[in-house]
Specification:
The chain contains 10 helices and 10 strands. With 281 residues, the protein is of the alpha/beta class. It has one domain: TIM Barrel, CATH 3.20.20.100. It has an 8-stranded parallel β-sheet. It has a two-stranded antiparallel ribbon with strand order 1-2. Strand 1 and strand 2 form a beta hairpin. The radius of gyration is 18 Å and the shape is globular. InterPro entries: AKR (IPR020471), NAD(P)_OxRdtase_dom_sf (IPR036812), NADP_OxRdtase_dom (IPR023210). It comes from Companilactobacillus halodurans.
Length: 281
Amino acid sequence: MKSITFNQQKTSAIGIGTWHIGEGDANKTESEIKALQYGLDNGINLIDTAEMYGEGLSETLIGNAIKDYDRSKFQLISKFYPYHATEKLIEKSLKASLKRLQTDYLDLYLLHWRGQTPLAETVNGLEKMVKAGLIKNWGVSNFDLNDLKELDSISHGSNCRINEDLYNISSRSIEYSILPWQKEHQMSFVGYSPFGSDGGQYLKIKPVIKEMAQQKHITVHQLLLAWVLRNHDVLSIPKTSSVEHMKSNLFAVDVEFSQSELDLLDESYPKPNENSQLEII
């Protein structure tokens, strides 16, 4: 498994996303657990979830999937609602997530998106959870450049380890300013939804994608995931609900592009040349 430096440590090139995981019947749940375990058994060492996902169902499924694994061998990320971003509610939400996940700590705990609670209060709450040993580090999600700059100006705000935003071949706004700023400030980046949303929004598959995938003898999804990973500087977290899909994602890690192929894709999905509004799913 190829690796990148993420959260200041060696991390698998892809993680496991879990949005909508745990919301199906017994057969689907069994398939999802097997997929998670296959990923962990084959070199993936990061799982991303949130209290929002199925209102705890995703965390519960993950807890059942990982309970017999060495917790020190993988990173676990969860996220809390913005209306749980006060010092008191952060602790309450975190402890509920830890119970569902059947673990004593999180490697990263993220504010899912900005709400009404002042960032300073949220940061204070997260720092207390670090001191309590309930989380190793913390981060944010769905933050644009102005949000990141504001966070950095707050006391202890520079302790933010990661920001997680939408990133796929059609949603590239983070490349213009967010990704460069995070690199400059040594903040890792997570790109969610490499395939767009489940309904096909946020990513229109143009002919060049299908043609190139066929030429490279890979699937469209493998090409889309490989493209996100192309620079080895971001972590992508594709959702995976079956062993077959997990195997497909693992194969995509080793797909490479020539410069001419990348240029061709840029023609249909141009790089951003100015700041634009951050897309959020």
